[in-house]
Structures are given as C-alpha cells and as structure tokens.
Amino acid sequence: MEHDDITRALEAALALRDPVALDRVLSTVWSVGLTAEWAPVFAKLLVEHWHVAQEDLANALQDLRDPATSDALYQVAHDSTDYNKIDAGRALARKCVWALHDLGARDHLERLAATAGDGETRAHAKAKLELAMRSPADPPDAYRVSRDERVRR
To answer: Is pLDDT above 70 for 82?
Structure first.
C-alpha cells in the first residue's frame, strides 16, 4: 500500500467510523513505519470512542512529536475517566502525558498537573514537568533516542 493510499484509508476509516477498517490500515502503518503526514488524522482518531486503538495512537503521536496534536493529547489525558471502560489502568492517560512531555507542551502539562480529574494523571503530569525543567545541555533520554529510530523523517 502506497503512502497516499494509507492516508486515504485512515481518513476513510475515520469518516465511516469503521473499527475493522481502522485496524486493517493501522496494521499497515505499523509495518511500513510512521510519517509526520499522518499525525493530524491520528489526533482526530485519538479522541474518538468508537475504536480501541487509542493507546497505539498515543504512542504514535509521541513518536511523531507534532505540536499540532497537543490539544488532542491533552483532551484525552485530562478526560481519561471517559475512557475507563477500555482503560481501567489509566495507561492511555499516562501515554498521553508522556507524549505531551516529548512535545515540550509545558502549558498542557501544567494544566494537567493542576486540573486533571484523576489524581494519578495529575501526579504523572507533575513528574513530567520536573523532567521538562532539565537543562537543554543534558543528553536526550535513552527512550527518546530509541523511539526516534521508528519514525521516517
């Protein structure tokens, strides 16, 4: 499947709200590698409740680090109780907080640390804020270096 075909398939799955089609195209995405062009549609899909790919999408957005996706990541992390049916362990909120940290979205992390409805999410956001305060001269986190290898630039 070509890059443009994947983009169209992602957009079609979103428009049709088709979880089977979304699973199929995401399998292809994971096998060919991520590209920044898909970040906007991933952000739109992240906030949707009709599929169960939110955690995978949050991971992808963390890897892509597109600042335009920060509002969707914030929304899902802040409103994580809406996802309790599929996310009893709060993994989705944690993944969104990690992605916001990697985006450098300090304003969103500060708001989460102050207002998230879930105490665990607030604490996690505070911890990521502390990491964000590190000096730019510090070496990059090891996890970040390894994740960057998965993204086609």
So the answer is: no
Q: Is 44 exposed, middle or buried (0-12, 13-18, 19+ CB in 10 A)?
A: middle
Token pair recorded at residue 59: 């991971």
The domain spans of the chain are: 3-152
Q: What is the pLDDT of residues 24-51, one digit of tens each?
A: 999 999 999 999 999 999 999 999 989 9
Whether 101 and 113 have beta carbons less than 8 Å apart is answered as: no
Structure tokens given for 14: 């979103």
Q: What is the pTM of this model?
A: 0.80
